[in-house]
Amino acid sequence: MASSSFDQLGLIAPLAQAVRELGYEQPTPVQEQAIPLVLAGRDLMAGAQTGTGKTAAFALPILQRLAPQASASASPARHPVRALVLTPTRELAIQVEQSFKEYGKHLPLRSTVVYGGADMDAQIRELRRGVEVLVATPGRLLDHVQSKTVMLNQVGILTLDEADRMLDMGFLPDIRRIIALLPKERQNLLFSATFPDEIRNLVKSLLRSPAEVQIAARNAVADLVTHVVHPVAREKKRELLAYLIQTRGLTQVLVFCGTRIGANRLAHQLRKDHIHADAIHGDKSQAERLEALDNFKAGKTAVLVATDVASRGLDIEGLPQVINFDIPHSPEDYVHRIGRTGRAGLTGEAISLVAPPDMEALAAIERLIKKKIDRVLVPGFQPDGGTVATLMGREARGASRRGDAPRVTASRPMAPRPQRPQGDPIFSKPYEPSAVPAAPAPKPEEAPQQSKRRAPQLAALLGGLKRA
Ligand code: AMP
Questions:
Q1: Using CA atoms, how far apart are residues 222 and 102, in angstroms rounded to an integer?
Q2: Residue 327: what pLDDT?
Q3: I want to staple 144 with a disulfide (CB 3.0 to 4.6 A). Which of 150, 303, 317, 350 is the partner?
């Protein structure tokens, strides 16, 4: 077989074969850069989010470094924990460990995963067998340390995966307690999507002369993702969501909600609208979460409503759409959320339903991603005039002063719903064609009379109509 560029990274045959079997043809940028550094024994600080192939970027070289000590012996004593990977969530832990199993399938190395919310006994049985690679969430690992069901005194490689999220979730004290249990001489790898100050402090105290790998600019979002904002009144969000899913025939969409209760309620309401929807969040048992995820991956559920924490690390191949039903309060969560789409070279779409209370959060997101997101009015769901002014007017005025009209567009493909004018000047003022660049009239089958007229009218007020 022709040698892939994975071979050029210096991977040993059993690993090169495993990646070939998985159909990987080329290493991703983070793999290309990180693998040689980790193989050389360097500490590493890598800026890469989920979807970049970061798991293989640490799992492959870790397996290679452990390979010389691999033992075919059945004795647990011959299989001490040599590599420890800490992750923020159970889902990510499971996926990372699964990756170790897949990449290491031609090596006699063992791995297991421990996480909270699941039976300790089954985990203890696995640990007793002896494993070289342990993937864990911090809290549950400390439970095992406490009950003396795991020894960490032979760990030679520590990986913190999604370090920023672990810190967000308050795991720093647990991480420090775990680090104190490890041998001083070890290799440290830290992967993080973002580098707030706490992460930089952790890097300073933990890593020794680390090599740095940065995939995409700090806090940049995947170029393959198209972002769009649909302005809508808050109380119409659910209806708009159902409408988008149904009219666009969306069959695999991850929807984000701010709260667990909100996620449950939304999934329930969508089901009432005859949309196959399920929710995934921290109140669900591990079995329920895995089932929801499996059904979603298998296409049995069209919509998975998730909270930020539950979505962390979800790896759903080729996920085409992510919808922000609630806008995240922390702009960095937006980056994490849309990291679920536009992965592995595929294009994706990040849709945000934005009501007036979300405006500040939206502005913070745009500052962080250094991108102005298109506002697309969905006919029939345009907020009332006052709301439109809040959502777009102020901005349009500011932009026109700078001679930089916002890219506001009227939604084209949606079949609009009839809507009564709301008594606002936006709707009652006659249309003045000179105020806008010539806009194509929506096709008759796409837009009835009323909306045909309103879209350019609104666009005129908002700074221009983008041709779709
Ligand atoms: P990660 O960023 O580690 O969550 O990986 C995202 C997805 O990309 C996973 O489904 C991996 O199996 C896949 N992947 C990782 N590396 C490659 C590669 N070199 N070629 C193709 N797919 C890859």
A1: 26
A2: 93
A3: 150
Domain end position, chosen among 214, 249, 277: 214
Give how far Cα 318 sits from Cα of 90, 92, 223, 444, Å.
21, 17, 15, 34
State whether the beta carbon of 24 lies less than 6 angstroms from ligand 1: yes
Across all residues in the chain, what is the average pLDDT? 79
Ligand 1 nearest atom to the CA of residue 26, by list position? 19
Query: How far, in Å, is the centroid of ligand 1 from the Cα of 5?
Result: 15
Say if CB 263 and CB 279 are below 8 A apart.
yes
Residues with Cβ < 8 Å from 60, sequence gap 6 or more?
Answer: 11, 15, 19, 31, 35, 103
Give 454's Cβ-side CA count (13 Å radius).
29
pLDDT tens-digit profile of 444-468? 323 333 333 333 333 322 323 333 2
Distance 28 CA to ligand 1 centre (A): 8
Q: Is the CB of 52 under 6 A from ligand 1?
A: yes
Strand, coil or helix: 48: coil
Say how many domains are in the chain.
2
End-to-end CA distance of the chain: 46
Task: Indicate whether residue 95 lines ligand 1 (CB < 6 A).
Answer: no
Task: For ligand 1, say whether the CB of 344 is within 6 Å of any of its atoms.
Answer: yes
Which structural domain, as residue segments, surrounds residue 125?
A: 6-214
pLDDT in tens, 108-133: 999 999 999 899 999 999 999 999 99
